[in-house]
Amino acid sequence: MDQTILVCKCVYANILGQKPTQLISSLTGGNIRIFVLDDLCLAATVKDKSLVELIQNNSVTIVACHKRAVKALLHFAGIDLNRAELKFVDLRAETIESALLAVKECESSLTRADVVNYNNQSSNGWYPWFPVIDSERCTNCKQCLNFCLFNVFGLDDSDHVKVINPQNCKTNCPACARICPGVAIIFPKYTSSPINGSEIIDEELEKQRVKLDMEKILGSDPQQMLKRRSLAKRVKLFSQDVSKKTGSDHFPNIR
Known about the structure:
Layout lengths: L1 E7 L10 H9 L5 E5 L2 H7 L2 H8 L1 E7 L2 H10 L8 E6 L5 H11 L7 E4 L14 E2 L9 H5 L5 E3 L5 E3 L11 H4 L6 E2 L16 H16 L3 H25 L9
Parallel strand pairs: 1-2, 1-3, 2-5, 3-4
Antiparallel strand pairs: 6-9, 7-8
Helix pairs in contact: 2-4, 8-9
């Protein structure tokens, strides 16, 4: 396999600052091949086959945000992580000096020197804010599916929850992640841990945090509220389907 560095600049959120640019500038004097993405979140929604091939056919060091978030984004993009030879450098957690050291340790045997602005997509005015799922933590309880009113989540052929409509997500709303019992839902652009994909240090503390958030968001009877929200979503989707077919709105909007 060829060896490659993939750098995410995260241009739609100021969570990495100037670190990606500084790192790229510091590395271009050596024998290094670098592919630069404007925003990995946006690239993941496109599910571009060439990006999949780049990662699965090369030994890749990914320089981006938290490892859990990056792995979940790659999985969402359709990349088989079991087939990929990946290393991760966390620019959210590392200083630029430690990130440079980590990259050089990972890629000490590289033999090419170029920088490629790889397959950068236009968001068409959309801020790429949406959840991704940590498959290693997800218990498939379907709580997120019942909670979300905007049809962001759906089911795959194996009846497992997945994100199906990322652009439906409401910008800067991480509510589904706050009530996830498995702490499996990640918003890569979120500010706080562990919803932003950082490693979970204290499992018991997170269980207590989820319990408190469920009471704040869903009230004293969370299961009853989830049933009501699930019903509201089905009615809303049915109303939208009727509107598309008939050209008129026969049902009130449910928010």
